[in-house]
Amino acid sequence: MEHTHHAHTPRNDYGRFIATILLLCLLAGAGYALQHTISCFLLSWVIAYLLDPLLVSAERRGMKRLYALGLLYILLTILTVFFLTFIVPAITISWNSFVLDLPAYIQKLKQIALEWKTRLPDRYGSDEIQWLIDKASANIDTAAEKAGFWAYNFGTRIFFNLFNIVLSPILVFFMLYYKLIVIDTIISWLPDSRRRQILDIAHEVNISIGGYLRGQVMVSIIVALLATIALFVLGIPHPIFCGIFAGAASILPFIGVIIATLPALFFAWFKFQSAAMLGQTTFAFAVIYFVEGYVIKPLVFKESMNLNPLVTIIMVMALGETLGFWGILLALPIASAIKITWGHFVRGDFK
């Protein structure tokens, strides 16, 4: 009988493991099918998560949550009007200029490919290299033909995201207003024997996720501003576009620094075609990311998540493929939450 008992335990464990994998696959499939709805919800959740500490601070000073929420929305309305009046037109002008110049950039790349082809010496292996250049030129032609469609498709996505932005303030309001009711309801669903334990883990996860999200938003904004100013001073085209791209790329761990510099280097080379200007642009980004890594992040991020680099890359790739930008942004918080929960499980806290 004892042997039979030990034989059935692993099967139950394997069954739970397989059921968990299937459930995760089902959730991933549902997330991909409902990615626009989930994107709107995640946008609202991140905004609410970032704003909630302000409401908590106001409540500690004796202000009711509804009044604090109303005051917060008044301030946000003022900031939104400023953003729509000054920032959005500048971004729009920069984007329109980029779209108009895009065919010229592509044709310039094709011209360079043809120049390289004519300069190739008649040696062993040159036929293969010429074949590669011909394929690259054909791809450049295809890119030129699709440039207008790509710009239109991107504009369509921006319009849909604007709908999310319009809907998000409503969702944020209800998320912030009913926060305590939702939390109390969830707590009431927890089993009494595990309630305190789960709440302690949730508090630890909340501190980790909240610190990361608030810190990453601040870091991205600072990097975007510094990059925009540096490129404007250097006279490189589309500084706002490159600055926003650099701020967004700073979310990516490890490779974000490299990706952020590519558009700026391309525009610098296209306009000046000078190695000195490429060096200045590289130096500017090196200074920016040195300040980010050794000054800004140590001040913004109070505690490091200490995640395994391989796990970090896998989470970013998987969630980025499933949820796009929001998957990339939330990959590290989710990985941190899993790590914290798994640590408690290994220590035997769930026994």
Written description of the protein model:
Helix 8 (256-272) runs antiparallel to helix 9. The protein is 87% helix and 0% strand. It is built from eleven helices and no strands. The relative contact order is 0.08. The longest helix has 55 residues, at 65-119. It is mainly alpha-helical and 351 residues long.
Q: Which properties best describe this structure?
A:
351 residues; disordered N terminus; mainly alpha
Secondary-structure map:
Layout: H1 2-33, H2 35-60, H3 65-119, H4 126-177, H5 179-189, H6 195-234, H7 239-249, H8 256-272, H9 275-300, H10 309-323, H11 325-346
Helix pairs in contact: 2-3, 2-4, 3-4, 6-7, 6-9, 6-11, 7-8, 8-9, 10-11
Please count the helical segments.
Answer: 11
* Estimated structural class: mainly alpha
Q: What is the helix content?
A: over 70%
- Mean pLDDT across the residues is 77
- Write down how many β-strands occur, each being a DSSP E stretch of 2 or more residues: 0
Shape: globular
Order of helices and strands: HHHHHHHHHHH
Major beta-sheet overview: none
What portion of the residues fall into strands of 2 or more residues? under 5%
Could you tell me the radius of gyration in angstroms? Answer: 25 Å
Low-confidence stretches: 1-10
Termini Cα gap: 25 Å
